[in-house]
Design goal:
Layout: E1 10-14, H1 17-27, E2 31-38, E3 43-50, E4 53-60, E5 79-83, H2 86-95, E6 104-105, E7 112-117, E8 123-128
Parallel strand pairs: 1-4, 5-8
Antiparallel strand pairs: 2-3, 3-4, 6-7, 7-8
């Protein structure tokens, strides 16, 4: 069996790079580690970290097609972040203008969770630590 150490990063293609960079950094609290404009591709690439850990590669590509599937389709369903208090984190998102689903309880774990989306509709989740 292949021995994987950890998830290295998650790549996200944004329709509006500055808007998505602001969302992930200013609202969700990621830090921009590095940013480069790739002229040959007319594309920005930003490396985002959470608590010093590199996690997201944020890209812009001209004329990238929109996401065409819903979270229940095959493939990546959502990206989840753990938080200590889901209700409090949800309230902070709502205060920043981010619409969230009501907080629910996972029937298997008893943990609280909620869903919201990034500026391009990418499904994100807050899950009780």
């Amino acid at each position: 069996m292949l021995k994987l150490n950890q998830v290295h990063h998650i790549a996200i293609i944004a329709s509006d790079y500055p808007r998505s960079k602001a969302f992930y950094c200013d609202i969700l609290g990621f830090t921009l580690l590095d940013e480069v404009y790739r002229e040959a591709r007319d594309s920005w690439k930003g490396d985002l970290a959470l608590h010093g850990q590199y996690l997201i590669e944020l890209f812009s590509f001209p004329a990238a097609p929109a996401r065409i599937t819903q979270p229940e389709a095959q493939g990546l369903r959502h990206l989840a972040f753990s938080v200590d208090d889901v209700a409090s984190a949800r309230a902070q998102l709502e205060a920043s203008g981010v619409s969230c689903e009501p907080v629910r309880v996972d029937p298997l774990t008893g943990k609280h969770f909620t869903f919201f989306t990034d500026p391009d509709g990418l499904p994100l989740e807050l899950y009780q630590a």
